[in-house]
Specification:
Blueprint lengths: L1 H11 L5 H18 L6 H21 L3 H18 L2 H17 L3 H18 L2 H18 L2 H16 L15 H14 L3 H11 L7 H17 L3 H15 L6 H4 L17 H11 L46 H5 L5
Length: about 350
């Protein structure tokens, strides 16, 4: 059942099935947990309940109910510990790090990512170690720690490339080359390295079918990265594409995730394409969320986030010295054939 709800969430956004998932948790799952005190199936039951709380947390997060999302993830983490499931606990901590980064809480994002790495190492999962490392990198980027961020990105790439033979649990199937590329793009963008972010953002769009929300987020991510480079016509064209995708996805994160801190600061107030973008938004019925404009009128960029996973353009290390700064080219992620 959780897999069905997860597919619906990925395709239509958190607002589509959240009420059903929450009702099922309250009416069926919680009573089962209260009745289960011992027995051979107790760990499996608690792990399954953790997965469902995890999904409910992401659904709440996706529609802007952040306190509810945090509550669900904390409950999921508690259930993981009850089930003695280190892999799932690492995933919960990585998700909490993701949420912290979304809110700009860089210190918390890094701390939670480090906790996720400890659980991932105890579990032996290379995939989860890679996920935790890339979450750490994003938190470090938000702190402005370029050296630490690039080192964490390099670890994420190395570990991910060693995970080919690892069996993926169903709740981790989203973590592929496209998702990892998107996280690299977020980190480079938040370091102010839009040129380095762009190839990863483009790679993130080579994603598996069924992840329409992720495609929306990644399209908008690329639009903001192009706007940061003052390539406004291209940015606005992608913005229009994102607004079309948004009509079928019930999510508020695409309206909030780029946020004011990602808006280019010195773009003239009037640019070709802005009016057509606003008209496109209006015609498609796309409106602003929580008092924010659907698109920033001065930049043509739209709020967004999330993504999909990768292997990269030369090897990350080969770029660790460009212009005397530590910037990564990450060839292996960009050049390797996608397994999707």
């Amino acid at each position: 059942m959780t897999q069905v709800f997860r597919r619906l969430d990925n395709r239509y956004g958190g607002g589509h099935s959240r009420s059903v998932v929450t009702s099922y948790l309250n009416a069926t799952v919680t009573p089962l947990l209260q009745e289960s005190t011992s027995g051979g199936g107790r760990s499996d039951l608690f792990a399954a309940a953790a997965e469902l709380h995890h999904l409910a947390g992401w659904m709440a997060y996706d529609i802007g109910h952040h306190a509810d999302g945090h509550t669900h993830l904390r409950q999921a983490l508690r259930l993981c510990h009850e089930a003695d499931d280190e892999r799932l606990a690492s995933e919960m901590l990585a998700g909490m790090s993701h949420q912290a980064a979304f809110h700009g809480a860089a210190d918390s994002a890094v701390d939670l990512a480090l906790a996720a790495q400890h659980s991932a190492k105890r579990s032996g999962s290379k995939l989860l170690q890679a996920e935790a490392a890339v979450m750490e990198a994003h938190g470090l980027a938000l702190q402005g720690d370029k050296t630490g961020c690039l080192a964490a990105l390099s670890r994420a790439e190395d570990t991910f490339n060693k995970s080919d033979a690892e069996e993926r649990p169903l709740w981790l199937t989203y973590f592929d080359h496209a998702y990892l590329a998107a996280k690299f793009a977020h980190a480079f963008r938040d370091l102010g390295l839009a040129g380095d972010a762009e190839p990863f953002a483009r790679r993130s769009l080579e994603m598996t079918d069924g992840y329409e929300r992720g495609r929306l987020f990644n399209t908008a991510l690329l639009a903001t990265i192009l706007a940061d480079q003052r390539r406004l016509e291209e940015s606005c064209a992608l913005g229009m594409e994102a607004t079309t995708l948004a009509t079928s996805v019930r999510s508020t994160r695409h309206q909030l995730s780029t946020g004011p801190r990602h808006a280019p600061s010195a773009i003239p107030k009037r640019q070709t394409g802005q009016r057509s973008l606003r008209e496109h938004d209006r015609d498609r019925g796309v409106t602003a969320g929580r008092g924010q404009p659907a698109w920033n009128a001065s930049t043509c960029s739209r709020p967004t986030r999330d993504a999909a996973p990768m292997i990269w353009p030369v090897s990350m290390r080969s770029r660790i010295e460009s212009s005397g700064t530590q910037s990564i080219r990450s060839a292996s992620l960009m050049s390797a054939a996608s397994p999707m």
